[in-house]
Write a structure and sequence with these properties.
Helix content: 25-40%
Largest sheet: 8 strands, mixed
Radius of gyration: 26 Å
Bound molecules: ligand MGD, molybdenum atom
Distance between the termini: 51 Å
Number of strands: 32
Number of helices: 29
Low-confidence stretches: 10-36
Mean pLDDT: 95
Structural class: alpha/beta
Shape: globular
Oligomer: single chain
């Protein structure tokens, strides 16, 4: 959507209105009378972009894009529903049996959704009592408060920092390493190219548009995924995608999307799609590499001058080491791409300037390290790494990577850790021989098997015995895999505390739930444009916190005060004192380089602009002189063979990129005789993960009979007697869900998509919300993580493998239960 279309649409449609009367009534009662009581337009920002909001009678009335945003996302239509929706957590609440029996409660009831309203004082003292009990009985290895997630933007209120600083003032706890997004990629790439690559600034789009002949979008859907950013998104990448579309049309740049499905980007650009069997890209890459060698197309002098280990890799490629030459013929049988096309790709990629752009989905599967490593080998063989418009990138679909950075210093944030010299109440660092840091996606494993030792990136990790978890700013009952396994694990926890704005499934499986206000109910500031760092944006409070919700800052100030540490926590500063400090520190850092007005002027203007940055080529300095500018690998060169990884001796991640079969794979792979369909749980087009699923009217624009869509191939649907709009049951041995059929040619046979972030809404055998705690419960809305597999990618990264997942589906014949995801808990009085 471009800006003009958006504004036109705004006038034509009646804008988002408030939902049920139950939301409306208390809302009016709590209408804003605070510091920003005057109605009118204010500035704010979010992952979905920056915008102006109009407040009328103390209620958010209109949301329009910030005037610098030329390509606002359609999701702006969901913003109001983030504040006004029936899923809001209104009061502090405690699970019924936990209130009655504390740490001795019946934990199998967790998830039955029965909660009791309590006062803030009661909730916070229960929270502190639980932490006291865990620290006394078990020490820091009993507490995990280290999960992070996508929170809301804002440098001051970033909620996970508040929780971790305050809980850290009470005592130490287990932390995580890595993330769900790029767990495998960020672990393998430092061995290969010397940095995570995934979070590095990439070659500027201007140069790519000028220099590239061919762009390979590999498992990559930037047109969908650039709608959101880690900071307030500028959407500047879309201007470049528009130019790319033009060049594709004129035949000046050839874009090939290698993806099992027709992506949003492919449709937008009108570019080519190359279908590949899911999870088989390494075979395809090996086939291309084999062809390059047999046709003598590879760049031997680049390989010689800039990389290490091609000699060790070559015998594997040619089949001398294992008797299997990785010919196009061999590859074709696995990946489903014809030999002719594989051969042609080897030619096309080496004929002109070729930019390979990897997406991240491909590494969120078993052995997800391999396609990233092998793609780097391909790029090395092509020999264009470090040239503008050539080589390889691992992030052009993310947070404006490829938009040149302004170069200004960004504002700091509220501290996540304790200040120098501060000591926790329980000053105990004894983790009893267990690891204090565990790979991010292995926490459920740890709860289930405390004391077990696993391999991880060359080290051994011994699982702690976790008894209590605290979550803020992340939604593990969205982001983690295999709900029924999670239920079993949660039975072993004595206490779970969640701080959230909404009744997410994580709240549902907690004991203490604390209501945070949304980012639109507090004052903050943020970087405008994550990697672009285009300026600083004021995030002006739109309305006072609804119901009894509080800002995370206020929640944890109260909590710290309970520990006698209120002053230490806030450093004696209020919300506005902090904002002024963050701003003025940034102003000092930019002094002489980027002009910034005084704080009051900034706050009134709502924005400071840092200007445009200079185009830039990734790895150009390395190409220029690899001795003076070595990569961060052990050898300083691209490592096609890694001695370090080889020394780990992992069967599932050897010393050079390798094709390894998966435990579950469609299109003839293991497990496909029983459950023939590959489930891809890609990132949602109309949400940020689970965020905005709660936005009622907006959700209604894409749901089918009130359920999350499951995208199905027409033949697959027909074979099962399913029509567009039907309710479908999707299942495997791990779980089952209901979703609404969207039959579409964009999805080939044997593949379905259910987007991650669909709120888990389990119901019991009787269809009741209270039965949601049952193992095997049906998800009434369509959360794909009801079905996914909870295994590590390999002994190297131990990362999330959500895309190694097979399912079957059928037309649902039973009595259709009500969706239980969005209406909040069953309130109980005692
Ligand atoms: N099957 C499958 N699973 C996946 C993925 C996949 O592709 N497929 N992708 C994975 C990836 S890459 C990621 S990044 C994760 C994302 O997983 P998460 O980061 O956990 O997802 P979010 O839904 O963004 O969760 C953020 C939570 O913070 C809450 N929140 C927002 N603002 C505030 C606030 O101001 N205060 C407080 N206290 N809370 C707030 C939101 O309501 C929400 O519940 O999911 C992972 N899981
Ligand atoms: N709108 C929106 N944008 C987002 C997010 C969001 O929630 N909503 N989340 C953000 C976050 S946290 C992240 S981590 C990124 C995620 O970024 P990615 O992980 O790159 O995004 P996905 O859209 O899940 O997957 C991209 C493409 O990979 C393809 N694919 C999957 N498996 C395979 C395979 O085996 N082979 C090949 N060749 N292709 C495959 C899918 O069909 C899909 O088209 O997106 C970010 N952007
Ligand atoms: Mo992510």
């Amino acid at each position: 959507m471009n800006r003009r279309d958006f504004l036109k649409g705004l006038a034509a449609t009646s804008y988002v209105t408030l939902s049920g009367a139950s939301v409306l009534a208390p809302l009016n009662a709590l209408a804003n009378t605070g510091a920003n009581a005057n109605d009118g337009w204010l500035t704010t920002g979010s992952h979905f972009g920056a915008f102006k909001m109009k407040r009328k009678n103390g209620v958010i009335d209109q949301v329009i894009p910030f005037d610098r945003d030329q390509y606002p996302t359609d999701m702006i239509n969901g913003i109001k529903g983030l504040v006004y929706n029936p899923s809001r957590v209104r009061y502090p609440m405690v699970r019924l049996d936990f209130l009655l029996n504390g740490h001795k409660s019946d934990t199998s009831q967790r998830g039955d959704f029965r909660f009791v309203r309590v006062t803030w004082d009661k909730a916070l003292s229960l929270f502190k009592d639980s932490l006291d009990e865990v620290q006394t009985k078990y020490g820091p290895s009993g507490l995990h408060a280290g999960q992070t997630g996508w929170r809301a933007t804002g440098q001051l209120h970033s909620c996970t920092s508040h929780m971790q600083r305050a809980v850290g003032m009470h005592g130490n706890f287990i932390k995580k390493i890595g993330d769900y997004s790029t767990g495998a990629g960020q672990t393998i790439m430092p061995y290969v190219l010397g940095s995570t690559e995934v979070y590095a600034q990439g070659t500027s789009w201007q140069l790519i548009l000028q220099e590239s002949n061919t762009i390979i979008l590999w498992s990559n859907d930037p047109y969908k995924n650039l709608q959101v950013g880690w900071n307030a998104e500028t959407h500047e990448s879309f201007a470049y995608l528009a130019q790319l579309k033009e060049k594709v049309k004129q035949g000046k740049i050839r874009v090939i999307s290698i993806d099992p499905v027709v992506t949003k980007t492919q449709k937008y650009l009108g570019c080519e799609q190359l279908y590949v069997n899911p999870q088989t890209d390494v075979a395809l890459m090996l086939g291309i590499a084999h062809e390059m060698v047999s046709q003598n197309l590879h760049d031997k002098s680049f390989i010689e001058g800039y990389s290490l280990g091609f000699d060790q890799f070559l015998p594997y490629l040619m089949g001398e080491s294992d008797g299997v030459p990785k010919t196009p013929e061999w590859a074709s049988k696995i990946c489903g791409v014809s030999q002719e096309i594989i051969r042609d790709l080897a030619k096309v990629m080496t004929a002109g300037r070729t930019q390979i752009m990897m997406g991240w989905c491909i590494q969120r599967q078993q052995h997800g390290e391999q396609p990233y490593w092998m793609a780097a080998v391909l790029a090395t063989m092509i020999g264009q790494i470090g040239l503008p418009g050539g080589g390889i990138s691992y992030g052009h679909h993310y947070s404006g990577i490829g938009v040149p950075s302004s170069g200004a210093a960004a504002p700091g944030a509220f501290p996540r850790n304790l200040d120098e010299g501060q000591k926790p109440l329980f000053d105990n660092n004894d983790f009893k021989g267990a690891s204090s840091t565990i790979p991010v996606a292995r926490w459920i494993d740890a709860i289930l098997e405390p004391g077990k030792t696993i391999e991880a990136n060359g080290s051994k990790v011994t699982y702690p015995d976790i008894k209590m978890m605290v979550f803020s700013g992340n939604n593990p009952w969205n982001h983690h895999q295999d709900r029924n396994r999670m239920k079993r694990a949660f039975h072993k926890l004595e206490c779970v505390v969640t701080i959230d704005t909404n009744w997410t499934a994580t709240c549902r499986f907690s004991d203490i739930v604390l209501p945070a206000c949304t980012t639109f109910e507090r004052n903050d500031l943020d970087v405008y444009g994550s990697y672009a760092n285009r300026g600083i944006l004021a995030m002006q409070k739109m309305v006072e916190p609804l119901y009894e919700s509080l800002s995370d800052f206020e929640i944890f100030t109260r909590f710290a005060t309970l520990m006698g540490k209120g002053e230490q926590y806030t450093r004696g500063m209020s919300e506005f004192d902090w904002l002024k400090k963050l701003y003025n520190d940034c102003k000092a850092d930019n002094d002489g380089n980027f002009a910034m007005p005084d704080f009051d002027t900034f706050w009134q203007q709502g924005y400071v602009h840092f200007g445009e940055g200079e185009p830039w080529t990734r790895h150009a300095d390395f190409r220029d002189d690899p001795e003076i500018n070595p990569l961060g690998t052990p050898s300083g060169l691209i490592e096609i063979f890694s001695r370090k990884i080889a020394q780990f001796n992992y069967d599932d991640c050897p010393g050079h990129p390798t094709w390894i079969e998966k435990t579950e794979r469609s299109h003839g792979g293991p497990g496909s005789d029983k459950h023939p369909i590959w489930l891809q749980s890609c990132h949602p087009d109309h949400r940020l993960h689970s965020q905005m699923c709660e936005s009622e009217q907006y959700r209604a624009t894409y749901t089918v009979q009130g359920r999350e869509p499951v995208f199905l191939n027409p033949l697959d649907a027909k074979q099962r007697g399913i029509k567009d709009g039907d309710i479908v049951r999707v299942f495997n041995d791990r779980g089952q869900l209901l979703a609404g059929a969207v039959v579409s040619n964009r999805f080939p046979q044997g593949i379905v998509r259910i987007q991650e972030g669909a709120w888990y809404g389990p119901v019991g055998k009787d269809g009741s919300k209270q039965g949601g705690n049952e193992i095997g419960a049906l998800c009434s809305y369509g959360d794909p993580n009801t079905l996914t597999q909870d295994i590590g990618t390999s002994k190297l990264a131990q990362a999330c493998s959500a895309y190694t997942c097979l399912v079957e589906f059928e037309r649902y014949q039973g009595k259709v239960p009500e969706v239980s995801s969005f209406s909040g808990p069953i309130e109980t009085l005692i």
